[in-house]
Amino acid sequence: MTFEEVNRLLREYKSNKKLLDAEQRRIQELRASIADLRATDYSRENVCKSHEPNAYMESILDRIARLERRANTLIQNIFDIEDIIADNMDNLTPLEQAMVIDRYMNCWSLTKICKKYNYCERQVRRIIVTAKRKMTK
Predict the structure, then answer these.
(1) Using CA of residue 63, residue 68, residue 73, residue 78, what is the dihedral sign?
(2) Residue 9 CB neighbours (<10 A)
(3) What SS3 class is residue 115?
(4) Which of 8, 20, 106, 136 could disulfide-link 74, Cβ–Cβ 3.0 to 4.6 Å?
(5) How far is the C-alpha of 34 from the C-alpha of 109, rounded, in Å?
(6) Residue 132 in contact with residue 92, Cβ under 8 Å?
(7) Residue 64 and residue 56: Cα distance in Å, rounded?
(8) DSSP label at 42?
(9) 28 to each of 11, 25, 67, 86, 95, how far by Cα in Å?
(10) Dihedral angle computed from the Cα positions of residues 76, 82, 84 and 85, in that order, rounded to the nearest 10 degrees
(11) Bridge-partner residues for 40, per DSSP?
């Protein structure tokens, strides 16, 4: 694996994780809008306010299904990339592993990493680049 491939994998992982978070927020918002369309009967079961088919509700359910399918493919993609990254992190020092995990897996900014490890931004960048180079071997 080359340096560019490692870099691409880490960036792809980070972007997929952010995209997955956005998809999950959209799903929650749509489910909340469905909850607004529901009423509670006396048996305490959620039922639709009207018994007629509701085109708006059906469209929301279709969107939720599409978003959930997309989220599932993103999750699978994230797991595949995690496996590849984990296989290549064996020869990193614990500090390098922690910084790569914080930067790409936890989506932390360089400033937050600098504060956590008490290094300047230049040093953090150097450690992360060194870790990426070690991951290519």
Answers:
(1) positive
(2) 20
(3) helix
(4) 20
(5) 36
(6) no
(7) 12
(8) T
(9) 26, 5, 11, 31, 36
(10) 160
(11) 46
Do 131 and 100 contact (CB within 8 A), yes or no?
yes
Q: Which tens digits make up the pLDDT trace of 51-65?
A: 555 777 788 889 999
pTM of structure: 0.77
Distance CA 21, CA 34 (A): 20
Q: At residue 43, does pLDDT exceed 90?
A: no
- What is the token pair recorded at 76? 């699978």
Tell me the mean pLDDT in the region 31-37. Answer: 75
Q: Considering only CA atoms, which of 111, 94, 89, 108 is closest in space to residue 17?
A: 108
* 3-state DSSP percent of the chain in helix, strand and coil, to 5: 75, 5, 20
Which residues are bridge partners to 48 per DSSP? 38
**Which residues, listed in sequence order, are joined to residue 43 by a DSSP beta bridge?**
none
105 neighbors 98 (Cβ within 8 angstroms): no
If 0-12 CB within 10 Å is exposed, 13-18 middle and 19+ buried, where does residue 45 land?
A: exposed
- What distance in Å separates the CA atoms of residue 51 and residue 39, rounded to the nearest whole number? 11
